[in-house]
## 1
Amino acid sequence: MLAISRDGEGMEGTSTMKYAVIDTETSGLFDFSKPAEADGQPRLASLAIILLDDAFVETGRHDIFIKPDGWTMGTEAGSVNGLTNEILNERGIPILSALTVYNQILDQDRAIVAFNAQFDTKVMRGELRRAGLPDRFETTPNICVMRASTDIVKAPKKSGSGYKFPKLSEACAHFGIKIAEQHTAMGDAEAAAEVFRKLKALGACPDPEVHYATNRPIPIKVEDLPAPVASQTIGANNPPGPIDYARETMEAINKWMEDHPVILTEADAREAKLLVDRSKSSLAEIEAERDNKVRPLNEQVKQINTEYKSYHNPDPKTPDKSGIYDKIANELRARLEAFLIAEENKRKAAAREAERIAQAALGAAREAEAKEREAIENARVGEFGVNVAEVTREADTAFKAFTQAARVAEIAQVDTRFKVGGGFLKPTGLRTNKVLVLNDVKAAIDAIGMTEKIRDAVLSSARDYRKLRNELPKGVSEVEERVL
């Protein structure tokens, strides 16, 4: 079957994926609570791109420096990545030129690969938005090898519970990768590409996935803007509701947090407490209004489900709640299944007997053949009384009997899979259902490793254990956390 590859070329087999491993160095650190292009967000200072084909072989690379235009290289960031305004002005190119290269690579339908893809794609999103170009964030699949390597590297959290996102240096140390020029875009991109290859070899790398922006710039017409809350009156077409009041509260909280990056005094804490109370109240009002609107619909759905599911409940997770028609149909299926199993067992027994007869016929044929060879040899040396023709006929008869028995055995083996016809749908037969069986819990966990899913399952079982015995099982303890 002819398939089309990701680069548009015809090829035999399935489609292939190509990759672009990227790394960015910026003029500072991002505030992830703000849009990528917001005032004060850092700027792209250098961009490294390594192109990989579907076999993860490098096919090209770009090492790009950006000439500052209205911004300067931060001293703190420069002390890490080694970039200065002088270097960037001397070696840099205009940001639009760099974005053109980036867009051309995305136009090749490549998946972006990065170590902390959330950071690097946000850097590029911000620069594209500032340039008035589509940010392409919601159309470009990406793979974050930092997140993918978390359960492989197993860098412990400071709390001692679970694993943190590893640093690039920690991932490289785990895989035995040497970083040529750490904290340079190209050096880090080369290291990320090697981590990517290691993860792919282990089968631990996820498929590329498109993520969706939290802060999306949406064009708004002036006439579509809601009236300020203070100017809205009861009885207007759109009187203020919980969402309007919550919006006003969140704007106040955002403004306060801009002015108070850290709470330092009790007076600050009291102001923050007031805003926390306002947020709780606003969110509770939103939930109450939502519940008032949704509850009648949920009741309606519940009544409909109760009526119909009393007859037919297709949810395989609740077999104990099968409808009355399900129970009748399942009983009939069970009886038909029992018949099919019994019939297949009879046919398998018949096939085994046919195979035994065929093997016996084969033995008789070989014995007759041996007698034939012996008679021919005896006649050749002049022995009298040897009837070669007779023993030859016996050998031919024996081999014909074997051939017929072998054919019967072959047909019997094929006929062990039995299907019932009739009705108006396709014939019904048994199918092979493979079920995983846990033979050794410890061996399985040792092989898989302590993943988040396994950890959550163990802790959930530990809670059930405590409910029954009023104590936690061995290997599980409880710690106290102070939370607001």
Note: Residues 150 and 245 are 41 Å apart (CA to CA).
## 2
Amino acid sequence: MKFQFKINKLALIRDTFVLNNDYRLKQKNFPFLFWTKLEKQLWEKFKNEPGYYLINPIHSDWAFKKIYILAEKKGIEKTFLNIAKTIRKIYKEIINSKEFKQLFSETQKYKIFVERQWNRNKNFVLSYFKNDLGLKIPNYTITIYIFHPKSHNGYADCQTKSILWGHPENWKNYTIVYLAHELLHILTYKKLKDFDVMHALIELATDNELRIRLNKKGKYFIPKQKKQMPLHIKKLFDLERKIYPYWKEYLKNRKGRNIFDLEKEIIQKLK
């Protein structure tokens, strides 16, 4: 299995707008304060262009309404071709700005950090997947798209075999643990029977067991503030605790089983 680390400039730019807007709505300090000057300049120049709001989605609802009204008059193809030209123009201006150069430089430094941490630990992780989870390590390439560490990105696109990643290093080996988490989603998605059960097993296998093995200390279930969890995360956390005894028994005595066999056993026991 090969791994390549990339920065997609267009995705990085849009993600920065999205995060600033998210904090604006929550009335919190901007994570990218230096970016607000560029936002203001672009707003003054492109505020009447609906294409701008496909990059900065602050008023995307208004933009899409205008796009479809234009499409009724000019046709869908011509409307979206004109929008694409505007978007290319705006992206070019952003990429040439000093604000983007700062953003890209910080993201490049983070990319080096992530790549080094992964390369130091990948053999340990893949050995754990093979020997303890019973997985075959396929011979294909995983692309890891790196975002700014303030972005809180962590997502696996199983169909394209890619991971979107950018997050503060909250504790030692945080990045490797959660890259392993996303990688497990890619390695299991075609054969899993129940997404919730497999997701809970992935959390037990990486967020907990792998973290403890890498750091040579720690315990399961780092305290989480359940009151602040979204409902689907609370349900996942509760399911983890429920299946934890089956997971520990599996680690103690695999008997030739793999993580898919364990998933099937758990599904039967939860019926």
Note: The radius of gyration is 22 Å.
